[in-house]
């Protein structure tokens, strides 16, 4: 299998961490979406990463689809619980973490536009989602070590990848001081080799 990804994508990082936790060998291929010869559009009509190319040439896209596929490939180190209630809560954490990341990315893209084209209302709206999402994630985590049932899962990976991306792209946000439960969780995630070895570059 081959993974098309970029080093700074939080969604691709989620897939890479899952693959490492599951000990699944995947050929990692870094791509640049801005490159006119980028192969992503040949495997995902949406032109988005990550994309997992299977051994038979078929492709899977959207990180949530890919991580479920990888988790079901082997019973080793289950990251998505099989019991339905726990599974739903893990996927809910993932959806909220990914949603906060979506909003933060949209805000950053809008802020990067030329000043005369920039819409401050769009940035404010998206950053409102980020603030509300982080506030809820921080409250729901509380004093727990892990997100769901005190067991390491995909929920923790998704949350860690969100926080790692905020460290990269919103280093002046001060989220660690504002959300101490999330800061503690992130420090715990950094102790895992699967996570610390996929830290995105600073540029």
Write the layout of secondary structure elements.
Blueprint: E1 2-5, H1 10-22, E2 27-30, E3 51-53, E4 59-61, H2 63-73, H3 84-111, H4 120-141, H5 154-169, H6 175-178, H7 180-189, H8 193-196
Parallel strand pairs: 1-2
Antiparallel strand pairs: 1-3, 3-4
Describe the structure using short key phrases:
alpha+beta, Glutaredoxin, Glutathione S-transferase Yfyf (Class Pi), Chain A, domain 2, 2 domains, 4-stranded mixed sheet, 8 helices, globular
Describe the structure.
Strand 3 and strand 4 form a beta hairpin. Helices cover 53% and strands 7% of the residues. It is α+β, with helices and mostly antiparallel strands and 203 residues long. It has eight helices and four strands; from the N terminus they run E-H-E-E-E-H-H-H-H-H-H-H. It has a four-stranded mixed sheet, covered by helices on one side. It folds into two domains: 2-73, Glutaredoxin (3-Layer(aba) Sandwich); 84-192, Glutathione S-transferase Yfyf (Class Pi), Chain A, domain 2 (Up-down Bundle), CATH 1.20.1050.10.
